[in-house]
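Re: that chain you flagged

S.,

Sorry for the slow reply, it's been a week of failed gels. I finally had a moment to sit down with the sequence you sent. For the record, here it is as I used it:
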Amino acid sequence: MAISSSLNSAFRRVPTWPLYILCAAHLSGLFYSAATGGMGPEPIKALEHAYGEMGLKLLVVTLAVTPLRKYTGVSLLKFRRALGLSAFFYIAAHLAVWLVLDVQVISRIWDDIVKRPYITVGMAGFATLLPLALTSNNMSLRKMGAASWRKLHRLTYLAALLGGAHYIMLVKGLQLEPLVYMAVILGLLAARGRAGLGVSSDSARQLRKNRS
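Prediction finished late last night. Pasting the structure tokens below so you have them in one place:
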């Protein structure tokens, strides 16, 4: 308890805005690396993968906030909005690389979405995240009310599951890494269920406090 209290006290003094700067810097750094030959012989595929995997990692961290608080007393609620939005930015960049640099031909995009199940699942995951990103602000919380806002943001669970499934389906054969991601996601969802499903009223109050 003493350790968690000390950590929480330290976190309260840390602003959330540096997370957005780190996210933008990392996004730019990965793009620069791909553009200058630092990502191997297939830089577009490598960049696409790097953005998508980082977005999935941040979704996992976002899911972990509630179980971490419940079982250790360490609260990262202050940073959850920044983590969730950063995950969305990476996944949007992942989609943009696929659309603009990989597919390029507009007429092929719909065909790929319909005919390739892993793309269908990935697009469904992005569509699930979009309303969450658009409503991750104080104005939306006030207009929707805390109860409706919490219900909408339970879509985070579905988005994470779709992201994990997209990764499993994307790779050739059964590979360990995407299976580990899915196992972690399922474990966190189970832990969140035991901790109390949904975003708590404490989370809603914390969102009002965040101004980053």
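What I noticed first: Residues 30 and 47 are 7 Å apart (CA to CA).

Talk soon,
D.
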